[in-house]
Amino acid sequence: MFLQTSTRFGIRDTIEGNQYNLTTRSRSLSVTNTKSPIIVWLRRDLRLTDNPSLHFATTEKRPIVLAYIHDDSDTAWQIGAASCWWLHHSLGALTASVEKASGHLCLLRGKTKNVLEALIKETGADTIAWNRRYEPAAIESDSNLKRHLLKKGIDVKSFAGNLCHEPWQVQRAGKHPYKVFTAYWRASLKTESLALTRSVKKLDQCISLPDHETSLEELALLPTIAWAEAFPRNWQPGEAGAKKNLKTLLATTLSDYQTARDLPSVQGTSRLSPHLAFGEISPRYINATVRDALLKKKIADDDNTETFLREIGWREFAHHLIYHFPHTTDKPLDQRFEKFPWKKIKPETLSRWQQGDTGIPLVDAGMRQLWQTGWMHNRVRMVVGSLLVKNLGYHWREGAEWFWDTLVDADLASNSMGWQWVAGSGADAAPYFRVFNPVRQGERFDPEGTYVRTWVPEIAKLGKKRIHAPWTATEAELSEAGIVLGETYPEPIVELSGSRIAALERFEKIKQPK
DNA sequence: TGAAATGTTGGGGCG
DNA sequence: ACGCCCCAACATTTC
Question: What pLDDT does residue A509 have?
Fold first, then answer.
């Protein structure tokens, strides 16, 4: 057995440890050679700031095996393609910052259980630490793993890393978990947030395992087709990018957040979602930073700030829901929707929705923004979702699965909650009769048509009066804009008014009391 | 974090 | 001057 540090950091000293040979930086030898290593298993917590399991390990004064395991065995809701792109770059960024802290990140591949067992055997580690996850599949595999490792005499330490409150902390004693956001939010404001842990600056106890590790490239996370080409223009995965977005939010975006966050043509949102999804930044760090800025009067204590904090609260609520109602990743929370008459999928129709070829400008703009950047503005997500679920009558899971594969911020808790909200079957859901009209939404939130023109250039020459509904334009207006409906841009995939009424009738039938 | 239908009000044109 | 109608603008109700 042979363990060594990354060669980039020079000094290599081979020593005889108790049960193993260890190569590590010389100055930590006196501390490390008598103690068993601790494995820090990173998952959706790819950061050094406020990372409780990592912080715990650094306080232990013994060798650390800092490991990310890419387990691509086939499971439900396995990481999607856009998320893989993000993960690749996030791991790259983390590797660099870990090395800057004189540490080393081990990239490993294989079945999690096998990899961890091999690591334990190889290094003599007697402890493993991780930050908890709350998705049903993760909970199941984590608890199986924990039981298995405890039986083998390994100490397993799990931490609360990715939420301000554990899902079971915000709860009325003896009652059902919250299903309504405002009630949840009020209660969570009264519940003390989990504390921040100190940022990790030095990781020189890290050891490496050259016989086991793989390179980032070997993880093969990047798409094989030239699809994500435009992603880097929009994103900087990693902790530094996350902090940069938070800084921009506090310095500029937040002052007009309440209004601007609804305008898809404006950079009015925080754009923190993918960073949060991969745990490159913690919600506690975000809240603490906002609080600090408030104290220093750098931002105003107004509705803008409150609205933003509430959005962080929605993320917490989504995790609360997925923890207490784990079936909601696939099945409706509201039982009445079990037998809802979703329409049979026509592959061509579904594909036109996916590709942004519906002939409804705001929908097409959103779906193309998603495809080209891995992200879609939240207001537009509601609009495209409403079209799929209400006007086209397709099961919300079709939308959830597409988003899951194409969003860089894909998060099972938020995705499931969001789609069930749109469908009306979830917690605090939109009432069944709430059907978004993409034309009306365009006129209200993209009045100049700027957003549509960006993503649907073939109709860009239409004036703002027609840009959201080209089918209402006159022959003259169309020809002046160089559009031939049905050729250069499609006729609408569905007639909005009639399909709305039909949807209302379908939903009406299941609305009898629970 | 809805849209459309329906109801109400008030100004202005007009006989 | 007055009543009537039209309709835009806004409010309320309904799905």
Answer: 86
Kindly list the domain boundaries of chain A, sorted by start residue. 335-509
Lookup result for tokens 């086209």: A392
Quickly give A476 CA vs B11 C1' distance in Å.
36
A471 touches strand B (CB under 7 A): no
Sheet of strand A64-70, all strands in order from the earlier edge strand to the far edge: A105-109, A64-70, A38-42, A127-131, A155-159
A338 burial (CB, 10 Å; 0-12 / 13-18 / 19+) is: exposed
Output the pLDDT for position A327.
Answer: 97
pLDDT at A23: 40
Closest listed residue to residue A354, CA positions, set A336, A366, A337: A366
Count how many residues are written for chain A: 514
Question: How far is Cα A4 from Cα A212, in angstroms, rounded to an integer?
Answer: 12
Å: A465 CA to C3 C1': 39
Query: Going by DSSP bridges, is the β-strand pair A13-16/A21-24 parallel, antiparallel, or unpaired?
Result: antiparallel
Please answer whether residues A45 and A53 qualify as being in contact, where contact means their C-beta atoms are separated by less than 8 angstroms.
yes
C-alpha A28/C-alpha A295 separation (Å) is: 40
Cα gap A395→A400, rounded to integer Å? 9
Concatenating the DSSP letter of every residue in A398-461 gives HHHHHHHHH-TT--HHHHHHHHHHHHT-STTPPPTT----HHHHHHHHSTT-HHHHHH-GGGTT
CATH class of A335-509: mainly alpha
Query: Which residues of chain A, if any, have pLDDT below 50?
Result: 1-32, 514
> Taking CA A256 as the corner, what is the angle to CA A184 and CA A459, rounded to the nearest 5 degrees?
105
Residues 495-514 of A with CB under 7 A from strand C: 504, 508
What's residue A428's pLDDT?
85
pLDDT for the residue A26: 32
pLDDT for the residue numbered A469: 96
Nucleotide nearest to A431 (CA to C1'): B2
CA-based nearest residue to A178, from A332, A323, A308: A323
Find the helix or strand (DSSP H, E) in which A64 lies: strand A64-70
Q: Which of residues 270-329 of A touch strand B (CB under 7 A)?
A: 314
State the pLDDT at residue A365. Answer: 98
Amino acid occupying residue A369: Q
Instruction: Report if CB A499 to strand B is under 7 Å.
Output: no
Residues A394 and A358 sit within 8 Å (Cβ to Cβ): no
pLDDT for the residue numbered A160: 98
* Residue A188 token pair: 């969570």
CA atoms within 13 A on the CB side of A9: 24
